[in-house]
Specification:
Number of domains: 3
Structural class: alpha/beta
Bound molecules: zinc ion
Low-confidence stretches: none
Shape: flat
Mean pLDDT: 90
Length: about 240
């Protein structure tokens, strides 16, 4: 693998015994990979990259936007903040004295989320407060939904936890029967959380993602494919 720089783009080039040149942009950072025929000159490869610059930049922007969605929230006044797929306007309630996490009370009305902040609070502190609140929203939503689906599917989990995971929406340990749900699900429609819960519970019937697993999914949640696609496509 060789690496070259063109127009500020870093391109990884691999030469193989093939006829055509292939260009791919990979998440999460929009890294560029070119697979080129063995005999092709570097000049020809450069020319190819330059002819694709617009397309490359478009792809990179798209990928970065998708993958950095969790980090883009700044928690400033007027910002749009998601909860269960609905966008609320963030309003900051100024406090002069320090706010203890245990005393933190974030309120919500039809349009706004009211976040108490001290004057010197930075993004990290606000994010911490909001994540704690998202956790509480999940804790309110999950138990009934989980119980309902355990009954419908005829399985029982041993326990469940919420974790702020980067790459997975949920996990299920089929041995300990413990389910883990991604904190970020609180930002998406409830249908997405429901899909993840059903998915993890179905693993108690079938541990791998084979056809048996898919058939169970279709039996219990006929529109699971749409929910899955939505979950992975739509960014909040
Ligand atoms: Zn799975």
């Amino acid at each position: 693998m060789k690496q070259i720089k063109v127009n500020g783009l870093v391109v990884n080039i691999e030469k193989k015994q093939i006829k055509n040149m292939y260009l791919k942009v990979f998440p999460p950072n929009g890294e560029l990979f070119i697979t080129a025929p063995k005999r092709m000159s570097e000049a020809r490869i450069l020319e190819f990259i330059l002819s694709k610059v617009d397309w490359i930049e478009k792809q990179q922007t798209k990928i970065k936007k998708q993958y950095s969605a969790q980090k883009t929230l700044e928690y400033v006044k007027g910002e749009k903040i998601p909860l269960w797929g609905k966008m609320y306007t963030l309003d900051l309630i100024p406090f002069t004295s320090p706010i203890r996490m245990s005393d933190l009370r974030i309120e919500k009305d039809k349009e706004r989320i009211l976040l108490p902040v001290t004057e010197d609070s930075d993004r990290e502190q606000r994010k911490k407060s909001m994540d704690l609140w998202y956790r509480k929203q999940m804790e309110t939503m999950v138990p009934d939904m989980l119980k309902e689906w355990e009954n419908r599917i005829g399985v029982e989990s041993s326990s469940w936890v919420i974790r702020d995971m980067k790459t997975r929406w949920g996990t299920c340990n089929v041995v300990s029967r413990k389910i883990c749900l991604n904190l970020q699900l609180a930002k998406r429609p409830r249908e997405c959380l429901e899909y993840v819960i059903v998915h993890e519970l179905v693993h108690l019937l079938e541990s791998s993602h084979n056809q048996v697993f898919k058939d169970y999914m279709t039996q219990f949640l006929p529109d699971w494919k749409e929910r899955k696609a939505f979950l992975n496509r739509v960014v909040y």
